Amino acid sequence: MATKLNLDKLDLQIIHEMMDNAEISYADLGKKLFVSGGTIHVRIKKLQEAGIVKGTKLNVDLKQLGYDVIAFIGIYLEKSSLYDSVAKELQRIPEIVRLNYTTGNYSMFAEIVCKDINQLRFVLHDELQKIKGIERTETFISLEESFTRNVQVFTQ
Fold first, then answer.
1. Could you tell me the pLDDT band of residue 134, with boundaries at 50, 70 and 90?
2. 86, 108 Cβ separation under 8 angstroms
3. What is the CATH number of domain 9-50?
4. Which residues contact 102 (CB under 8 A, 6 or more apart)?
5. What confidence tens digit (pLDDT) does each residue in 32-53 have?
6. Coil, strand or helix: which one is 143?
7. What is the DSSP string of 21-88?
8. Measured between alpha carbons, how far is 152 from 74 in angstroms, rounded to an integer?
9. Which 3 state secondary structure label does DSSP give 19?
10. Which residues contact 47 (CB under 8 A, 6 or more apart)?
């Protein structure tokens, strides 16, 4: 069993600031938080080793790159015990960008990003439906993403 990492106020401040702007240099972040850039570096390394910080990502406007279809797929499994094997197969489909094991109507819920409806149809019909263990699916097409945000990490 993993031991729980004791995060102090500085760790939470670093997480909060970097979630807001991951491009900030360690030196600039250190100035903002009144510690050295070296201290920031050591703390970030500690948070990475603990698995709390899992890297940084580039935020890209997918529509500008021609990806016009975002859909959500509710997946019904034949048996819940098939989750691991189905998840492994779904991970091989590059258009699926997020997958969750859920309670409620669906066994799994996936987010999929495609260039167009033809690509979505291909993924649904030619890839997803051929996976053993999937009983059926229900697809929801997103008309607009109003916002996306990180959870606020409080520093108190």
1. very high
2. yes
3. 1.10.10.10
4. 108, 109
5. 999 999 999 999 999 999 999 9
6. coil
7. -TTS-HHHHHHHHTS-HHHHHHHHHHHHHTTS---------GGGGT--EEEEEEEEES-GGGHHHHHH
8. 28
9. helix
10. 11, 14, 15, 53
CATH class (in words) of the domain with range 62-142: alpha beta
What does the H/E/C string look like for 86-116? HHHHHCCCCCEEEEEECCCCCCEEEEEEECC
For residue 119, give the nearest of 67, 74, 73 by alpha carbon.
Answer: 67
> Domain segments of the chain: what residues?
9-50, 62-142
Q: Are 51 and 3 in contact (CB under 8 A)?
A: no
3-state DSSP call for residue 135? strand
pLDDT tens-place string over residues 54-97 = 888 888 889 999 999 999 999 999 999 999 999 999 999 999 99
Number of CB atoms found within 10 A of residue 13's CB: 18
pTM above 0.70, yes or no: yes
